[in-house]
Amino acid sequence: MPADIPFVRELDVDYGRVDQVSPLIRRVIADNPSSFTAWGTGTYIIGKGNVAVVDPGPMDDAHLKALEAAVAGETITHLLITHTHLDHSPLAAPMKEKHGAPTYAYGPHGAGKYEQGVVVEEGGDMDFTPDEHVRHGDVIEGDGWSVECVYTPGHTSNHICFALREERALFSGDHVMGWSTTIVSPPDGDMQEYVDSLDLLLERDDRVYWPTHGAAIEDPHTYVTALKAHREERAQQVLSCLRDGLTKVVEMVPRMYAGDVPQAMYPAAARSVFSTLIWLIERGEAAVDGEPAVRAAYSLA
Questions:
Q1: 91-98 long-range contacts, CB within 8 A, separation 24+
Q2: With respect to CATH, is domain 231-300 assigned 1.10.10.10?
Q3: pLDDT (tens digit, 9 = 90+) per residue, 213-233?
Q4: Distance CA 1, CA 260 (A)
């Protein structure tokens, strides 16, 4: 890809180990590596004594035991959820049951789209509903720490980041990941919202990002600028495909992603191409006969 995204594709991982990654932040990584989760889900613990847990992770007994060991002798007062994919939120349920800590999130799966009258497909943590619905700009305060809520729809419609104000550190969930670009899959995923959310981050002065998957991003502005440029490059590639008579997503993916991702990832790439086509239609640069769909035929506007 022409866009020079400074990915960080190395991470010292020992599943279940507690790493003190900053004065106020600890991290425990779940043993759920995959092509979508990289090394696994990184769960963060904020503070000491009375603590918050960010993205408890998948429903996994070993990860639950590791987190319980990490906070032994402490009190969990807050459970913060960036979004409701199955590698992020399910473990909040048993932790809430044991500790009585309330959950904080934008809303249940698909919440941002339901507000627009759009019903999303199942596939997330459909059992999750937060105790506290948070919105952009809300501040959650704990014992020696405070986080600002930064609403970043795009990857999912209920995606929200949490900014630890004491360290100018942003828990970026899956909105910005250090090892890879983010899948944007309609109808819950929305490319225009995703790019708008990148613009929102560029207006901030966060010092470091702690994504749920992968290593810290230590030059956020440069990184997010590169991500935005990459999305525009993908849009231009789609337009080039249309000019050359490639009208369907299945025809575009091999041309656009050859050498970038293995063929096993083409179905995921197809979802992002589909989202890019919807974005181009909204921009007035592409067209479709009928409703946009993965198998539909597209054309230049």
A1: 91/43, 91/56, 91/57, 91/58, 91/59, 91/60, 91/63, 91/64, 91/67, 92/56, 92/128, 93/59, 93/127, 93/128, 94/59, 94/64, 95/53, 95/56, 95/64, 95/67, 96/131, 98/68
A2: yes
A3: 999 999 999 999 999 999 999
A4: 7
Length of the chain: 301
The yes or no reply on domain 19-227 and CATH 3.10.20.600 is no
For the stretch 276-290, pLDDT in tens is 999 999 999 999 999
Q: Please state, as a whole number, how many other Cβ atoms lie within 10 Å of the Cβ of residue 191.
A: 23
Indicate if the pLDDT at residue 84 is higher than 70.
yes
Q: Residue 3's pLDDT is what?
A: 64
Domain boundaries, the chain: 19-227, 231-300
pLDDT at 259: 80
**Which residues have CB under 8 Å from 203's CB, separation 6+?**
none
Q: Would you list the DSSP string of 190-234?
A: -HHHHHHHHHHHHTS--SEEEESSSS-BS-HHHHHHHHHHHHHHH
For 9-33, what is each residue's pLDDT tens digit? Answer: 999 999 999 999 999 999 999 999 9
